[in-house]
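ENTRY TYPE: protein
WANTED: fold as tokens:
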Amino acid sequence: MPKPTPKTNAARILDRSRITYEIKTYDVDESDLSAVSAAEKLGLAVESVYKTLVARNDKKEILLACIPADTELDLKALASYSGGKKADLVPISDLPKLTGYVRGGCSPLGTKNPYRLFIDSSCEQLNIISISAGLRGVQILIDPADLIHVANAGVVQIARKV
């Protein structure tokens, strides 16, 4: 019998907002928690799988950034869009206390505290993107316009190819 699909805080937020989405699960490899690996396991195009990174700007504001799996975060651009001059990724050990999530399962929705979300503008070229549902091995497939709406996200150019 297949495992039941877990209901996460992110999924509950989408349900309350009556937003259509799909949950996909995959087997987690603790030695490779990358979004690129998730894309491969789900059979999705790597540019459609978005990873959520957590940063802090020089004004001490915590920020969420969603970028394609095969890119890196332009911290200077994120800082600028957030009204700061500088930003750095928070240490992985700080993720649970800041967001309620762990590395490899950080969702842009349903964080412990509300934070501003910035999504890379490349999402506007896609009909569906994949984001973490808030658990390792669980992804949400969603129309990026719906994610932008429900999260009140800023759509900006913050990703660069590695």
User: Anything to note?
Assistant: The chain has five helices and ten strands. The longest strand covers residues 50-57. Helices lie at 9-16, 35-42, 75-81, 95-99, 144-151. The CA atoms of residues 100 and 112 lie 5 Å apart.
